[in-house]
Amino acid sequence: MSDDVRDRNKKAAEKQKRNSEKREKHEEVQEKIYNSDADKLREQLSNKNEEYVFKLNKRLVDDDFTEDEAKEAIDNLLPDIIANQIKGVPATTLYGPVTKKAGDIAHPVKPKKKDPFWALSVDTSLLFFALFGALYGAVGVFSKKSNSQNNTGILTLIVLAVMWGFLLTYFNLQMKKPKKERPNIWKTLGYMGAGLIFMFIFLGVMQYVPAVINPVLNGYVYLVLAVVAFGGRWLFRRYMGITTRGFI
Fold it and tell me: In angstroms, rounded to a whole number, what is the distance separating the alpha carbons of residues 61 and 65?
């Protein structure tokens, strides 16, 4: 029984050693390819890849590239072409048709800008300020009771909008991450729950804050502030180049 275990362990160790040697050899080949001169790499092209490179060069020149510009663009591709050629992957499979690759080189797609968390939070906060402002304004205008009984102080409105903006932006960005990078749902909900509890405590405390510090404004003033916040949000998004939203 012990002999069988030793044999299995020995075979496993030998297999691991072979795999390690293969990886090292592969890394050496890759390093050699990516450090090679472009002219030497051209000599290693298969007939199929050589034809692809020739057609790609011609297409780029037809698209107003100079010969030097076309050569430089293709030289940058050669290491990847050779590395995949060794694996049996031709350039047509790697890059697609010549016309497509030439278009990609001539008109490269800019990587999508990642909007910073703080900017998305401000964007969402302005949105909530506009929504809450419109709500409190409507209550203040149409309610028969006094504004002080039905409305919320301006300081409360500002802090609420900021807290909702940051909380919901955080939650939404976590949920948008790839599944493997997404944090534990219970942890995220825990943060959200803690934020909501803090928000309710804040609302309770704000009831005892003097009106001098947290004045209740006229309903029409809230409506005007809502419009200003919505317009400010539009300008802020344009200035920051924001295309995504921190809140669904």
Answer: 5
